[in-house]
Structures are given as structure tokens and as C-alpha cells.
Design the sequence.
């Protein structure tokens, strides 16, 4: 018999609009894998009409560091909020979106509600790509775009012809919580550099969470991976347009939008 834990939550929505409560459900399964049902409210077609969506997502609560993509992180929810915000304002219509380090695929599925095409990528390791495909099938009724899953390893910039073609045709790249050590951070920035140097011009939205640790060397708490990201970005940004965006768009998913979450927008010319 499965244990089901129900947590009551209240959605946050725009002013002057009142909507009922909804729930998260966590359904326990073997091998520490869970089925998470996430309900979000979306303002559709810029009118006061709500579309209630229910996401079914297979994910893990605990993994080795190399397989952190099997977990759902706060950055994915923030990026999901941004995509909904862009989508309801028509900014994703007709666009091809490519996600880097997609993990469970959550934000790619949100993009698939609004975009013309979504290319969902991650490393081909530990069943991550299979997990994305399972989750895509579970959410097929919500995904309106063409949706494909491809392997992309930050440490391998020798892309095959199929991947290179998709990157060339991409308009918007998205990534959330993809840095967790210096080697991965360096490889990620190199991947971003190669993608943004591929014509035609592109825009990438990156959500990161600053994770602080106390170091004896500095005698203070620092966010080393984030600092590494900023240093590497400063070296390669060339003539890109780089902006840190305010997080002043509506919150659709229920999570803690903590001050450590940051959103970067980088566009090539």
C-alpha cells in the first residue's frame, strides 16, 4: 500500500484576482522515486480566464552529485515562472527553445505549452534521458509544441550533425541550476559560448541559486560556484548583451523564491 502525503498550499496570483486553493501530492514509490503532481494556474490569452494544469513528474529526492538532474530544484520552478510569464505575453510564440541540463524536463514541458518547438537536452547518464521521455509521455496532453529529446554533454563540444542543426535553429536557450562544481561550471560556460557564437543570434535565460559555504580562507560565507560562473562569464562575454533580470514577474509554482535565486539573460548580436 502506498503512502500519500497531501500538503495544502495557496497559489499566488495577480492582484484583483481571487482563486481557490489547490494541493501538492507526493506519492511514494520504491527506490526513492516519487510521482509529484504539480498544479499551476496560468493566465491564458491575457484575459481573466484560468487554465488549470496538472503535471505528473517522476523524479528522485536523493542522488549522487553526478545525477543531480534526477532531482527537481528551485531554479526549475523560477524558470518555469519566467516561461509562463513570457508565454502569456506572446514572447514564445513561433520560437524554438532548447534546454540545457534539463534533468526531469519540467521547464521544457512548460516551454512546450507556448513554443513552436522544444529541444530538451541533458547528459546521457544514469537514465536521465529516459526519465525525460517518461515524463514527456505523462504530460503529452499539455505539451503543444514539437518536442524532442537529445543528449548534450557540457564536456563534449564535438556536437554531431543532428544536435548542431537543432542548435542552429534555436531562438531561445534555457538552463536552471546547472552549476554545482567548478569543472561543470567551466564546461557549462564553454557550451554557452559555443552556442551563442553559432548564428543566427540567440538569447539564453539562466537561473542559478547561490549556494553559500563558510571558508577558513576567506573567513566568511561565499558562493564559490556562482563566483566561478561570474568570473568565467566575464572572460568570454565579448560583445554579448548580459543582464541580470529582476524577479518581479508573477509566481505560478509554489516554492520559496529565496533571495539566493538569480536570473541572467544573455543575448548574442
Sequence:
Amino acid at each position: 500500500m502506498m503512502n500519500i502525503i497531501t500538503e495544502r498550499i495557496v497559489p499566488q496570483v495577480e492582484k484583483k484576482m481571487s482563486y481557490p486553493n489547490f494541493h501538492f501530492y507526493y506519492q511514494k514509490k520504491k527506490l526513492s522515486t516519487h510521482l509529484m503532481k504539480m498544479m499551476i494556474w496560468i493566465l491564458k490569452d491575457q484575459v481573466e480566464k484560468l487554465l488549470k494544469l496538472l503535471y505528473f513528474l517522476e523524479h528522485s529526492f536523493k542522488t549522487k552529485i553526478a545525477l543531480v538532474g534526477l532531482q527537481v530544484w528551485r531554479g526549475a520552478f523560477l524558470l518555469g515562472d519566467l516561461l509562463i510569464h513570457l508565454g502569456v505575453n506572446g514572447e514564445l510564440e513561433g520560437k524554438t527553445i532548447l534546454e540545457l541540463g534539463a534533468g526531469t524536463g519540467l521547464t521544457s514541458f512548460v516551454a512546450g505549452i507556448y513554443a513552436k518547438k522544444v529541444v530538451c537536452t541533458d547528459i546521457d547518464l544514469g537514465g536521465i534521458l529516459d526519465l525525460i521521455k517518461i515524463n514527456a509521455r505523462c504530460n503529452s496532453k499539455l505539451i503543444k509544441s514539437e518536442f524532442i529529446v537529445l543528449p548534450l554533454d557540457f564536456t563534449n563540444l564535438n556536437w554531431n550533425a543532428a544536435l548542431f542543426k537543432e542548435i542552429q535553429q534555436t531562438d531561445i536557450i534555457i538552463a536552471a541550476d546547472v552549476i554545482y562544481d567548478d569543472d561543470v561550471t567551466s564546461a557549462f560556460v564553454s557550451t554557452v559560448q559555443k552556442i551563442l557564437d553559432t548564428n543566427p543570434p540567440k538569447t539564453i535565460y539562466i537561473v542559478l541559486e547561490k549556494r553559500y559555504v563558510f571558508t577558513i580562507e576567506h573567513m566568511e560565507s561565499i558562493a564559490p560556484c556562482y563566483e566561478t560562473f561570474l568570473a568565467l562569464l566575464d572572460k568570454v562575454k565579448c560583445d554579448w548583451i548580459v543582464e541580470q533580470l529582476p524577479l518581479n514577474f508573477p509566481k505560478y509554482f509554489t516554492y520559496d523564491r529565496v533571495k539566493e535565486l538569480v536570473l541572467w539573460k544573455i543575448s548574442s548580436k
In short: Residues 74-88 form the longest helix (15 residues). The CA atoms of residues 135 and 241 lie 34 Å apart. The helical segments are 74-88, 106-114, 128-138, 161-168, 182-196, 224-236.
